[in-house]
């Protein structure tokens, strides 16, 4: 090949002898790059970790790219549409990310600190992304208790989520998918009035807060008792705001746990409507008609742009 190179005019190759020499040995850029490209490196599986969760580690080496937009706002080159945040052309993300893309926050386990941290971050992002659209809070939670009625979380975690519901500029629609117990029922009642839904076979349960069982010195027991009184007062305040009943009446009513079926929850003021599959919001979309309409709009836009060129004949004034 080197002899052939010497016998051909240099302008046909566009490479100098020194540049050509780079590709004549084994350690050249082409061979180094070909060793990196394997079946594993270009497969979609590289974008998922061992647990099947989506990860960005397979997209590129090094840190994510950032760009500074107008006004000093920072946007990442990954993610979904909205405010300079473009959709990622890569493997599908995990299910929670798809729900978040539809402005859905899913509370599907007891309200432990890790859950509260995630929900708080989702509220902050969705409220920043578009405050004109509602946020949907889907609830299937036993509150701060587990299935054995044992306290597994702090009541203050639920109060933090309640604060985010109240401070959010977006309207928050709440839906009880299966069960909303204790603090989760309180969160259900704090949704936007008229948009608090329950599924036909869902259960809502109200009960006063509890504290972890503990022993020790009398001062420690006194502190626990004060903590319980404070949590109960907060709970009744928020629940009173949600159901529209005075705190005294709620305190008397909740001397024991109370269970509500779907219609009973509506009658008590915890929800507003039962969501059936025949509701208008569940009507299937005619995607073919929507696609045809979008194509027609694009074609009309192209024709309008072509007609508005600088060579177009101006219309005579009337």
Short description:
This protein is of the alpha/beta class and 318 residues long.
Characterise this structure.
- The protein has twelve helices and nine strands.
- The chain has 318 residues and is α/β, with parallel strands linked by helices.
- Strands 3, 4, 5, 6, 7, 8 and 9 form a seven-stranded mixed beta sheet that branches. The chain has a two-stranded antiparallel ribbon with strand order 1-2.
- Strand 4, helix 7 and strand 5 form a beta-alpha-beta unit.
- Helix 8 packs parallel to helix 9.
- The longest helix has 26 residues.
- The radius of gyration is 30 Å and the shape is elongated.
- The C terminus is likely disordered.
- Pfam families: CLP_protease.
- This is ATP-dependent Clp protease proteolytic subunit.
Task: Describe the secondary structure blueprint for this structure.
Blueprint (H helix, E strand, L loop, with lengths): L1 H5 L3 H4 L3 H6 L6 H8 L29 E3 L5 E3 L18 H7 L2 E4 L5 H17 L5 E7 L13 H13 L4 E10 L1 H7 L6 E3 L4 E4 L11 H26 L3 H7 L4 E3 L1 H7 L4 E2 L12 H21 L11
Helix pairs in contact: 6-7, 7-8, 7-9, 8-9
Tally the helices.
Answer: 12
Please, what is the average pLDDT?
75
What's the gyration radius in Å?
A: 30 Å
State the low-pLDDT regions, or none. 47-89, 309-318
Distance between the termini: 75 Å
Strand content: 5-15%
Estimate percent helicity.
40-55%
Got a strand count?
9
Structural class: alpha/beta
Pfam families: CLP_protease (PF00574)
Family: Belongs to the peptidase S14 family.
GO cellular component, one term: plastid
Region (Disordered): 298-318
């Amino acid at each position: 090949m080197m002899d052939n190179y010497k016998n051909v005019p240099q302008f046909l190759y566009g490479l100098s002898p020194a540049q050509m020499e780079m590709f004549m040995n084994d350690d050249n850029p082409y061979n180094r790059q070909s060793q990196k490209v394997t079946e594993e490196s270009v497969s979609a599986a590289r974008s998922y970790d061992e647990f099947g969760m989506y990860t960005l580690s397979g997209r590129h080496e090094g840190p994510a790219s950032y760009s500074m937009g107008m006004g000093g706002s920072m946007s990442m080159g990954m993610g979904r549409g909205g405010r300079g945040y473009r959709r990622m052309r890569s493997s599908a993300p995990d299910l929670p990310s798809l729900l978040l893309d539809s402005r859905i926050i899913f509370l599907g386990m007891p309200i432990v600190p890790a859950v509260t941290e995630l929900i708080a971050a989702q509220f902050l992002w969705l409220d920043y992304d578009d405050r004109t659209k509602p946020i949907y809070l889907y609830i299937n939670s036993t509150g701060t208790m587990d299935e054995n009625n044992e306290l597994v979380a702090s009541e203050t975690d639920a109060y933090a989520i309640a604060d985010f519901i109240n401070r959010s500029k977006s309207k928050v629609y709440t839906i009880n998918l299966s069960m909303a117990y204790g603090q989760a029922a309180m969160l259900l009642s704090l949704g936007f009035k008229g948009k608090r839904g329950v599924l036909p076979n869902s259960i809502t349960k109200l009960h006063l807060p509890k504290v972890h069982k503990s022993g020790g010195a009398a001062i420690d027991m006194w502190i626990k008792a004060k903590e319980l009184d404070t949590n109960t007062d907060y709970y009744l305040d928020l629940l009173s705001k949600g159901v529209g009943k005075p705190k005294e009446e709620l305190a008397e009513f909740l001397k024991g746990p109370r269970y509500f079926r779907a219609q009973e929850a509506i009658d008590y003021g915890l929800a507003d409507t039962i969501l059936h599959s025949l509701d208008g919001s569940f009507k299937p979309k005619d995607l073919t008609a929507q696609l045809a309409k979008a194509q027609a709009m694009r074609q009309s836009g192209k024709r309008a742009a072509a007609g508005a060129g600088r060579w177009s004949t101006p219309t005579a004034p009337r």
